[in-house]
Queue: 2 jobs
Job 1
Amino acid sequence: MKKLEERILKDGIVRSGNVLKVDSFINHQMDMELFEEMAKEWKRLFAGKPINKILTIEASGIGIAAIVAKEFGVPVVFAKKSMSINLDYDNYCTQIQSFTHGKVYDVIVSRKFLGPEDHVLIIDDFLANGCALLGLLNLVNVAGAVVEGIGVAVEKGFQKGGDMIREKGIQLESLAIVESMDEENGTIIFREQ
Ligand code: 5GP
């Protein structure tokens, strides 16, 4: 999506450790107009799929997923991170290794909000090694729901997550794929889509 790529080039900052900082429009301050355009693009890309629920993970996925849910006219559920093992049988639980914080989280979704009747579109801000998405896929599986697709704002194509998800045969729509980025001079190169 040209508009997202242009915004990344204008305001994104390449940090050490393969981190792209986009906190002026996605991760801290959020640009709602941009989110609306992203949501419209996913609506087009997933047209015809019987999506009745959006699933994301707290915290940074929530803003984007909320706008996407409005566009699709369906509810949005976010998986909650909890630092302690949760033995509450009212929840589905999985573990996720965090790329940005280097910790392992227990992640939960209430059984009330995800079940076999659901056709889910998973939305997240970034795709790096794919740990967050694997965790969400696991929750959907355990719930007996169907994954209709995954929408990611920014995929870092030089990390392994994108290939891993595509190999599973899941429709993955990343609105911008960073092919390479250089910490020294700040250059960012996108994959042609
Ligand atoms: P993964 O689980 O795919 O390795 O990492 C995905 C999660 O890590 C995303 O939900 C996002 O919060 C965070 N993340 C990974 N890479 C980056 C990055 O380069 N920039 C930012 N802002 N977040 C990232």
Job 2
Amino acid sequence: MNVLVLGGTGQARRLADALNERKFVVTSSLAGRVAVPSLPQGDVRIGGFGGVDGLAAWLCRHGTDVVVDATHPFAARMTAHAVAATAVAGVPLLVLRRRGWTAGPGDRWHRVPDAASAAALLPTLGQRVFLSTGRGDLAAFAALDGLWFLLRSVDPPQPPLPARCEVVRGRGPFTADAERELLREHRIDVLVTRDSGGEMTAAKLVAARELGVPVVLLDRPPAPDVPAVGTVEEAVRWLEEARERGAP
Ligand code: NAP
């Protein structure tokens, strides 16, 4: 069975590795955003497909039997394209999306629908912000001149950036000890992040809880109305069952 895994996440890498071991023919697709990506086993293609039509044509050309959208929960455009292109090409689509986070005792979370809402709320909560939203959302905070920002990203972030900011480079996973130290060292009094879910980047939420730091949490874009699983193991099972059925 020929599987296209739309990747760029740790889950996508682990899925591609697991499927390779189970003799699926896997191609992983990366957007090409990261200069030195961590690569999965099996074939890898890098770069956009050229929209819905480009992806649909790619699926037909390569005889793809199933697509797994294992992109980041906030990669909404790629997910929308996957839904539309698989419908055009008549190929089944499975979404692999880790579960979002839930607040526990001691958490001071403020859920907001998007980056603009987070920027509007921020000045009421703190002055020194750990902004951990990913590069695409930084522009929404660029006009907040009165606040100071700590930014963290794998590759250098592109302007527009907030006027008063410091950039630290880093790729998860991070430990709660390291995150606590980072918050303390920079005297962070509010954290902004997205409801990405997963273990790789959850430590900052633990550190914020322990230090009593409020968190502004950006909600996920709506999930598409297609079959979906939350773990790599569930995705493997779904694909094995599809292979046994001789799907599609
Ligand atoms: P996006 O806004 O949803 O997608 C924008 C365009 O990038 C897509 O239309 C597609 O171009 C291309 N693209 C995205 N993912 C691709 C993939 N896996 N393979 C081939 N082309 C892809 O995506 P994004 O938020 O910029 O994220 C880009 C990549 O980084 C994704 O693979 C995602 O899993 C990963 N990532 C994203 C985040 C995040 O915060 N958004 C965090 C960690 C990792 P065409 O229209 O030309 O096909």
